[in-house]
Amino acid sequence: MQPFSLRAAAVGVALLMGLAGTALADAKDYEFQLLDKEVKEGAAVISVKLVHKPSGRAIADAVIFAKRIDMGPDGMEMMTAPIELTSSTEPGVYRFKTDLGMAGEWALSLGAKVQGETGTVENKLIVKATQ
Length: 131
Known about the structure:
Layout: H1 2-23, E1 30-34, E2 38-40, E3 42-52, E4 57-58, E5 63-71, E6 76-80, E7 83-86, E8 93-100, E9 104-113, E10 121-130
Parallel strand pairs: 2-10
Antiparallel strand pairs: 1-3, 3-4, 3-8, 5-6, 5-9, 7-8, 9-10
């Protein structure tokens, strides 16, 4: 009986170590990647993908709690535009509807929580609006 107990204990320890390894993931292991680097000024939809950097897989069902778009890259941070999260059919892709008032570079700032992870994923992505 004792060899079986030791084997069961070893399996239990291995399982716990495996679970601990996934629990050690960090918000820094995730990033938003811009899919639309250039859009037309005016009404626009900007798509981004949330990616787990070590595995490269797209992350669906994150909670986007912060979103802002402004012309900070062109030295006009006070110039903002309305931005709204819209639906997407592709897992891990998040789409934002906005109305960019002029051509130039816009900073899309996002904050999100990934389910099961601690910390916040925060990225600032640069989108170019053209005429």
